[in-house]
Design brief:
homodimer; 194 residues; 2 domains; globular; DNA-binding
DNA sequence: GTCTATATACAGATAGAC
DNA sequence: GTCTATCTGTATATAGAC
């Protein structure tokens, strides 16, 4: 029932920034959404810029694949792929507007990325390399494969308006399309496994 | 040597809108870029909104695959894939910031999409369906395959800041990475061909 | 068509009472 | 901590001289 003012601001700011972007967001919109006074935003966070940085940093960390922990050593490479794709698609289905927000924000201000850890990517690339050495996987470039996997997951979300229009799908039909996505991505990835 | 004022405005507006987005763009920046007076923007285009609509519509049309005309009936499906991927990646390498601009803009204002033709997508999906019937291609969902192809092409561009950081690549190294992209996408697509 | 000057609106941010 | 009132800058847009 009780939410602190600071927490209310953060939740409202997430919603407004993710929806409207930094330049499109209004401090008044955030205050309205949080049902508090506009002056409180500055009392707690000093400036729009500072509030935004905090929201963006938090969201980027959620956006990066945190699935690495789930992966077990005994899994086959295909099972690992499935864990990554599945975990990622689930997060995206819960936060469909998140990727376009993050990608656009980092384009306009890449400095924020410097504090981000690279272990997740390195870990996944390591798995792929090992699977190739084992003969478990066909010879492909690990970095390109990882980018392809992420692209296949993320693109239908960042391109939702244009893709649903081009495919002639209503919002409901496009949701259904997204739900079939995992199976279709895995069909492609299976072809790479020996 | 001679460029009409209207043309100078359009070129400047393309540059500024694509770089900064609608909300981030300033009419003064466009005027400076075009080396004309700010009042001229309103004389020729009435409002920022109208100028933006015109730029965005033009850019979306360039963004959609116009490669369909190149495709010949005698080509194998793999050659058709290669034509699409190659044409698309070339356009992207010449306009690296275009996709993030269009995708973000259509997210904020999807109405603009209504005037866009769907033939390009339908044409490509038709080719894929036919190839499956012929036994030329493994059984995959044509719509998903098309979205996967586009995602593999576009994602490395829209995610450039985050991907180059995660892979630990400098700008030059990332450019090289992008230049190898075609080969790696085709490696994946080849596995789908019988 | 092109300029200068200005109108109008609204954004982020702060001062100060309670 | 929370509010109202207000400051200050700057954005889009227009009026009107040339």
């Amino acid at each position: 029932m009780e939410t602190s003012t600071e927490e209310k601001i953060i939740q409202a700011a997430e919603k407004v920034f993710v929806r409207d972007g930094y330049d499109g967001a209004r401090m008044q919109s955030i205050a309205d959404e949080a049902e508090i006074n506009k002056a409180m935003l500055h009392y707690y966070f000093r400036s729009k810029e500072k509030l935004f940085q905090q929201i963006l940093t938090g969201k980027i960390k959620a956006f990066l694949p945190t699935i690495l922990g789930i992966i077990q050593a005994e899994m086959t490479i295909l099972q690992k792929f499935e864990a990554v794709v599945d975990g990622y698609l689930k997060m995206l289905s819960e936060n469909p507007r998140l990727p376009i927000f993050i990608l656009f924000s980092t384009y306009r201000n890449p400095v924020i990325l410097e504090q981000l850890p690279r272990e997740v990517f390195h870990g996944l690339i390591g798995f792929i390399k090992k699977a190739i050495r084992n003969g478990e996987l066909k010879k492909v470039d690990p970095e390109h494969l990882l980018v392809s996997m992420m692209g296949m997951c993320v693109f239908p979300y960042v391109a939702k308006p244009i893709a649903s229009h081009m495919l002639g799908k209503s919002d409901d039909e496009y949701l259904l399309f997204l739900r079939n996505r995992k199976k279709e991505i895995m069909t492609l990835l299976k072809e790479l496994v020996n």
